[in-house]
Amino acid sequence: MEVIMVKIVKKALISVLITVLGISVAQAAYPDRPITLIVPWSAGGGSDTSMRMLAEQLSKDMPVPVVVVNKPGAGGALGTKAMCDAKPDGYTIGMVGSGVTGRQYSNPNANILSDFTNIAFFGPEPAFLSAGAPTGIKTLKQFFDYAKANPGKIKNGNDNPGGFSHVAASVMEAKFGIKLTKVPYKGYAPTVVGLLSGEVDTVTVPVPNVIDHHKSGKLTILGVADNQRHFMAPDVPTFKEMGYDFVLGSFRTIIGPNGISADKLKYLEKKIIAAVSNPQFQKKARNAGFNPQPMGAEETAKYIKEFDEMLYPVLLSAGLVKVRHK
Prior knowledge:
Helix 2 links the parallel strand 1 and strand 2. The protein has about 325 residues and is an alpha/beta fold. The chain folds into two domains: about 35-125 and about 250-315, Bordetella uptake gene, domain 1 (D-Maltodextrin-Binding Protein, domain 2, 3-Layer(aba) Sandwich), CATH 3.40.190; about 125-225, D-Maltodextrin-Binding Protein, domain 2 (3-Layer(aba) Sandwich). It is globular and about 90 Å long. It has helices at about 1-30, 45-60, 75-85, 100-105, 140-150, 165-175, 190-195, 210-215, 260-275, 280-285, 295-315, and strands spanning about 35-40, 65-70, 90-95, 115-130, 155-160, 180-185, 200-205, 220-225, 250-255. The protein is built from eleven helices and nine strands. The protein is about 45% helix and about 20% strand.
């Protein structure tokens, strides 16, 4: 009888051990297939470029590749929705910029901040104003003088309503009493193409998208909406330096759909922070005009909340929103 009991106990212990090991193996298996990183903008722009750089680094640091998928449209809203609606299994993540805060007030169909889970922060990015060579505009003073004397004559390329470059142009209109004809594009890359082809006269896109054309003389970066000059364009003055009180910035963060398990979120957070912090990545990103400043999920959520609280009064005073409906 005693021998039989010992055998039963041994079998039970083995069964428990197998179960525990099975669970451990299953947990350790993540990730075991490619991870999709949705970029809600067209290929070739700053968001696309920065995320492809990140995906390349993550693919080196993780056992599976990270694949960028572009889903442009509706000022970034379509790609963000695709990410928010994805299965929360840790295999679909996405990038959002500051436009995700503005869209929730200007687009009734856009996702709101509580529709997704923050994973990590990539970095901030100030607004810029650039003019095409054919305009002959070389300074902020020339721009504002012409804009005030010729309401609606200057065509400005930007995002759809709610996108950051659209917000930047709109805030400039309200703040300085000018009127621009805003022309929407599906991302920064086609916006710059529009400027170079003469479809528009100015653009309000970040420096990585225009710096090479600025250096070649095809366009002129007139000013940066920051408290200091940009490290990639040290010759370009800030708006404040030129007597125009205008400071406005964007950012890029990595998010996931609500419902991803805590262990997978922690894994992704850790890997993304490590990738963005990598010295070689930092050098490569800065050479491309980006300013990577990684933060974790909790810090990212706090940053976006504070940005949202700062942005809403700006949008309200600029007449871009009536009430906080989200």
